[in-house]
Amino acid sequence: MASSKNERERRLSQQSHRRHQGIGTKPPKVTNMKSTLFRIWSYMSGEKRLFKLVISVVVVSSILSLLGPLLLGFAVDNVISEPETTTLLQMVIVLLIVYVLYSITTWMQNYWMIGIAQNTVYRLRNHLFSHLQRLPLLFFQKRQHGELMSRLTNDIENVSKTLNSAVIQFTTSVLTITGTIAAMIWLSSLLTLLTLTIVPVMYIGMKWITKRTGRYFKEQQRNLGEMNGYVEEMFSGQQIITMYSQEKRVINEFAEKNEALRTSGYWAQTYSGFIPKLMNMLNNASFAIIVGAGGMLALNGMISLGVIVTFTTYSRQFTRPLNDLANQYNMILSAVAGAERVFQIIDEAEEEADENGAAGIKNINGDIRFQDVDFSYDDDQSTLKGLNFHVKSGETVALVGPTGAGKTTIISLLSRFYETDHGTVFIDGTDIKTITRESLRSQMGVVLQDSILFQTTIRENIRYGRLDATDFDVERAARSANAHDFIRKLPKGYDTVLDSDGKGISYGQRQLLSIARAMLADPALLILDEATSSIDTVTEMKIADGLETLMKGRTSFVIAHRLNTIRNADLILVLKSGEIIEKGTHKELVKQDGFYADLVHTQQSENKVSM
Amino acid sequence: MRKILSYTSTYKKAVWIAVFLMGIELVVELVQPLFMAKIIDEGIMKGDMSVVGLWGGILLGLSFIAFAAGISSSFYAAQASQGVGHDIRRDIFQKVQQFTRKNFGSFSTPGLITRITNDVIQIQNLLFMMMRIALRAPLFILFGMVMAFFIHPGLATILVISVPSLLLFLFWILKKGVKLFRRVQNKLDRVNTVIRENLAGIRLIKGFNRGVYEENRFEDVNGSLMNDNKKALWITELAMPIVMLGMNIVILIILWIGATKLNMKSAQAGELVAIINYATRMMFTFSVFTFLIMNFSRGNASAGRIRKVLDEETEGLDELGGSECPSLKGGISFENVSFEFSPSDGPALKDLSFTAHVGETIGILGETGSGKTSLLQLIPRLLDITTGRVLLDGVDIHKLNVEHIRKQISLVPQEAHLFSGTIKGNIGWGKDHATMEDIIQAAKKAQIHDFIMSLPGSYDAQIGQKGVTFSGGQKQRLSLARALVRDPKILLLDDSTSALDAHTEMKLLQTLKEMQCTVLIVAQKISSIQEADQILLLNQGKIIGNGDHETLLKTNVYYQSVYQSQLQEEVI
Q: Is B280 close to A313, i.e. CB distance below 8 A?
């Protein structure tokens, strides 16, 4: 929810920004332009030479675009002064060649650049994604998904769009402006001077407009944000509104916000609508100046008619990029800023490499021992202190304790998502640090509180547990997880494609699929992290059997809140602020009359009131 | 799109003024080359300085007139497009107010928000653009050719033949491009889905050691995105160079033929220059076309999405009919009631019959998806039954005025939804003109009064982002207080006490018992409904057991097994 909201706001602000960028808007923040550009460059790998070629083609096409109007002017002069067809034919042929070459070069530069840009972005995306797979779990827990998502999608998309076009456009603009002015001066410095008088007018005009649009766009943004929040609240509470017959009141409140948005939107759009008109007027004025003043100069014989023709095209050719330049530059800056955010992720340290000489393990028994284990996220505050326990193969351990007691941390240490600060974890008597992470994790299966399913068929979702499993294996796993019956009843059975938000099947059924997936993986070690916490009690009844089959014969670590899951465990560890304060079976702990017994008693006495 | 365009009728005047002002700009742009021809032929060629000065000045003056027209058109175009945006937003919002759960099945809340914000903005921009440049580009080409004809029919023929064919070619390529870009968008969504799934499931992926598998999966979708993106971009980038080349060749042909005509004295230099100028200007409008088509296809997609909301079938209060406005006593009976969201989904509730007498408490038990929530929503007609009859105090609900009936019924949903504002405002929401006394009474009944008094500002404390944040149980009790403030004759609780501790829940149920009202409670825990006069067991939309706790415990196997499992169900 939060993520989609962030994305939306981002999109909204991008949308309105794109339209009023220009002279006077603040560029995006970039901390180290040079090194970021260099890194993007490094992703071009084998295409660096092609890129250099593209840039030289851009130079050629820019020169050709200057040559066109110039030659056309000459041709016009030629037609008028000496109506001799042979020279004219020569000119026309030269012009034809120039035009053909111009079209070919512009197409070539774009064709190549698109290839380079897309390949580069492809590499960048792949690198980023595979890097993500190697980042330690802690990285993901420290960050908001919405924010990460935005870097992985929006920021890269931004780089992609900019590389596609802005690079060429920017270079072309710079070359065209300087080239056009140079050519104009060469033709007639006086007429150039007159033509250039529009530049300061343009600058002042744009400043005047963007000062106003900036203010109103900001206000529009605020109004839009307010309306957004209001709509979100009202749409999600729509049932309450209907139930309490408050439609009219809500509609009136919305009307106020809607009206405010109309007002600010009106001014923002009106002022931003001035920009193209201003540009138009300046084009028209420069046209008038060129024709009028140029005409007088031509009368005096200072310039030829062809020069006027050339100038009318040139004046358009340089005012346009002059206006676009600021946009293009801002686009490049914002892409570089986006790339910087992407590189920040790539610079995050990967999970530590396996120790030298670490060996793979296979077919473990599942005998687990924690010996004097300490762990802390930050150096100053320890999360786990002096942990000692032993789980025999095939036993079930229940971890009990308040939130933040370190239950999930124990499991993360066992999976080597984190490394112990002191002490050792043994599997079948082997220090897990001497085992490769991959082979260690391949011995484990997990069922989490939120059943994570992918947007593909049910069959593929179960197969995720063991990629080389046959369809038969998949169905057998579903059968032993009690999932087969409900899957078969679906119209498309195992080929039902799951929605990302899990429409179509119930929460309990999703969890059954997770269990089937773990079943298929057939791990020696099983981790159930609050696997039944979000399920209503009636549904849980149905899942219980599936879970029981799954846990049979495997060493299982269970984090749970419900007593019936805990009471049958072979070992219960009661944790409080990172320490095991009690350890034993349900019976032993109740007899001990400590923290655990207290928990059980308070719950029971409260239940007696209602039962 | 047509539906969206019909919104402009309210702003007809502004639209016409904007279009008229645009027309002025167009005229100025059209006559410029004409006057240039005059300057050349009658001024420069004949050496008459005054003609050059006069027409040069006129040209300059015209450009200011065009500017003034353009600036004023901005006001009117903005007025129309912002007005249309405002009206569409208003209509979407009002439409959504009539939505039932049925409608929310086809639209997600974020989806609706995107429509009311992004899509409307898209439409606004498109309209604004249409009034100002969209019409101008084709009109310039049309009238440009007419003017060229006026200047020199022979040379103009070349334009008449070539420009439309180049335009057709441009459309053809862009149409292909638009189609390809739609595919790119789908691929991009796919890439984003993989990333989102990966982030959400990172613990599972690491647990199952599926890093490499995920990388391959990502490389596939990423590669396919790259390929489609290249294709789409390549084809659209092809358009401009070809069209430009075509237009440039046309200019050369005009120049060549013009030169021969000039020799034969059948054309003047100024005329030739003017026609070349028209051709050059037309070439510049081509890029406007590219821009327009891309924006139009985007706007069209937005318009489609908006139309889907506006065309959604809903039943407003007026359409729900019924005129009788009795004061309810609280008797409810269901006679063979069935309900389905849509024929394809099959029935969500099948053949339900039961009766709740005035003042009784009915418990409803069943697993997720068994139809409990739908059953409750049928009573205030948040959903409407498909077959059968629902009677309130013996009267068919279809004969009753909905708004009037809803005022006497309170439904408390499972997820407590509070609005930003004060606590007082939230509780008072349930009743028009609720007094402070009413509010406090309701809060006391909902067992939340003491807690409210402990807050800084008590009943005036702000709820929401900058205010107090509440626990699930506190939210549920506030939402209960909102339901109780209106003294309902029928109270529908949809698992709305699930987050309360046993003790508080007990006290609450006791209070409800003392009130003069019929209560239907959906619950997960047998303990919440043990005392009910009647318990309905719901399974896959059917009643599979009906009776009080003792009877069900003796006769119903399903009930027994739930009871057994919950006996050991204690929460730590």
A: yes
